[in-house]
Amino acid sequence: MNEFESRYFPLKREFPRRVKRFSKDREVPQKRVRITGSLLRQWQVFIKSPFPEAAGKKLAFISDWHWHDSPRQQKILAELTAFMRQFAPDILLLGGDMCDDADTLYQQKELLEKIAAFAPLVLAVGGNWESGKRWLKKDFFAGLYRSCGINYLENSEFVNEFFAVTGMPDISSIKFHNIELPVHDDKVNILMTHNPDGVVALDKRGFLGKYQLIVCGHNHGGQVRVPFFGAVYCPSFYHRKFVRGIFRHRDHHFKMLVSSGIGEHRGTFRCFCPPEVLTVEFK
Hints:
The chain is of the alpha/beta class. The chain has six helices and 16 strands. The protein has a seven-stranded mixed beta sheet, with helices on one face. It is globular, with a radius of gyration of 17 Å. It starts with a helix and ends with a strand.
């Protein structure tokens, strides 16, 4: 492991074998739709609401932007802005890795202010690239997001009339904890964390049993995919198992959605893996 990997992917121990409890779920209604005239794809997922009151509510999830202000990213931002006006989500969830590297941090506030206008409520967690910037003050990102009107969740939750959203930092963060939060029997309980590997790490002592929905990103869908083969590489301890898609647990009833994300690292590219915005509609 070189210095770069140890800073941004500091996972040195073998993960638990609880991963065998997770498998692909092919029963949930879903479809991927290329947005007309856009680089973007919409990944539509339809979930039966556990409560009639939440039926008709809509969520959107974007992750892994790695913003570096390229012409391509500016175009995607314009397309996403138009899409969000049309889709009009009740809540927008941000799954981490919004920044690319230190030289683009000064651009984050302007980007986040634009994103904050996409929905009446925006909730966010940090990714491994945020946690890797250890020279910043402890609460730098929490303060940055708060100044833009976005709730930044770290081992905490946000509760409104219909939803209880728990936000966990990336598993590479020193703030990653398996905390105990109250169960909300009259809400749709949602867990948001950056990396699906972290969900496996949380799979103990029944921590995941309270949730109906889990959303995460990190793996970029592999970013480079080959037809009839899939992802060439996936930055996960479990290799290509959680590269993207919908997963279920052997003992619990939640659906875990792993998005391909919306960006790519600077200097890299996507191939047969277009940027996507995940939308969830409760029926």
